[in-house]
Automatic annotation (TrEMBL):
SUPFAM superfamilies for this protein: L domain-like (SSF52058), Outer arm dynein light chain 1 (SSF52075)
InterPro entries hit by this protein: Leu-rich_rpt, LRR_dom_sf, LRR_N_plant-typ, PGIP
Gene3D superfamilies per UniProt: Ribonuclease Inhibitor (3.80.10.10)
Protein name per the record: Polygalacturonase inhibitor 1
Tree of life domain: Eukaryota
Membrane topology, from the record: Single-pass membrane protein
Key words, A-Z: Leucine-rich repeat, Membrane, Repeat, Signal, Transmembrane, Transmembrane helix
Entry keyword annotation includes Transmembrane helix: yes
PANTHER family in alphabetical order: POLYGALACTURONASE INHIBITOR 1 (PTHR48059), RECEPTOR-LIKE PROTEIN KINASE 5 (PTHR48059:SF19)
GO annotations of cellular component type: membrane
Localization terms from the record: Cell envelope; Membrane
A Pfam family: LRRNT_2
Amino acid sequence: MHSPTRLIPSPLFLAIAFTITILCPFSCLRVSAARCHVDDETGLLGFKSGIRADPSAMLASWKKGTDCCQWLGVTCLTGDRVTALSLGGQPNNLTTTLTGTISPSLSKLNHLDGLYLQDLKYLSGPFPHSLFTLPKLLFVYIENNNLSGPIPTNIGNLIQLEALSLQGNQFSGPIPSSIGELTHLTQLKLGGNHLTGTVPLGIQRLRNLTLLHLERNQLSGPIPDLFSGLSDLISISLSNNKFTGTIPGSISALAPKLRFLELGHNSLSGKIPDFLGKFHALDTLDLSWNHFSGEVPKSFANLTKIFNLDLSHNKLVDPFPKMQVKGIESLDLSYNQFHLGRIPEWVTTSPIIYSLKLAKCGIKMKLDEWKPAETYFYDYIDLSENQITGSPVQLLNRTDYLVGFYASGNKLKFNLESMRFVKTLKYLDLSSNLVYGKVPKAISGLSKLNVSYNHLCGQLPSTKFPASAFAGNDCLCGSPLPQCKA
């Protein structure tokens, strides 16, 4: 039986191997480090050259001759080609910004399918026309920056797009009618700009839409009756515009799936349509600050999954339907023509509630007698301009996360020193009541305070609030009011 042959490397092989080992740290590694395609590297470095300020060194890793697939914000999913560019700041952090413009050199990124430039704040200039040259581009999120000018009239040429978000910029002019050509879109978000004119009817062709967000613009005219074919819509936000007319009937076709309908802060009128009671998946309904009149439909009792309901600042009248909710996060019925008498029982028994606003709702009750099932999670309570008597102390002493309590224009009578000031409390308005006692030092932790026109007395603690916050009381003194008498 033969033993296996043992291969002994020749002196020539060893010499070659030694040479490669010595040279590889300089040559071989350099070849592997320049793995990304030269066009992509050039395009990205061109983008970097258009940035004038980068205070957080977001682009510090973008260095010529290194692998651009490893640079911050760069993704390569197909070999050596860049497929996504994602750069994002932190919304409340002024250092995570980029100042400059979007370089046309992005046109070199021929395999790019996703562009995400979000919360960079000072990125400016017009809509980047280089995007029209990118054949594989599917997702564009240029959000919360400072781009301006019109949205290009030929935006419809980006027919392959599946998501387009330009929200939170300074774009102006109309929404181009060609946007109706983007029939693959699932998300269209143009909110927070300066767009004017009407909503183009072509949007009815975008049958794959799940999100339509056009809020915080200056759009006008009626909301077009174009929703009957958009049955996949989950979220519609048209708030803070100048829309007039009524809620279009075709919205009724969205009942099975729609979860968010936000139409607040417009000039809509007429009655709230009964069909909204069929939206069994609805989470949020905002019709606030419009001119809706008449009764709230009895069918609202069917909105068992509603978590956020805002009907405030309309002309709605009694009776308000008894809701069958399992819990509600926020409810605002303020400033209509309701005469509720008491805080509704379905609110009182709700196992979870964060924000309750019932200002000027015709409530006549003694607050001590209100025994809500849960107060632990309350963060905002507004009972202003009712005819509520008694004391809120028992209620407020059961809250641990209260941020704001507003109860001006009632007949509350209690000693202010008996009230517990939780650390989270920032806003307190007890003006025009019957509150007595001294002003406690705990007010120093508040951001806003109004205890004017009560029966408070004594020397004020050190305070940052103006004299108007304490005006009209019996005998308060000390800065910012006149000095106390010796």
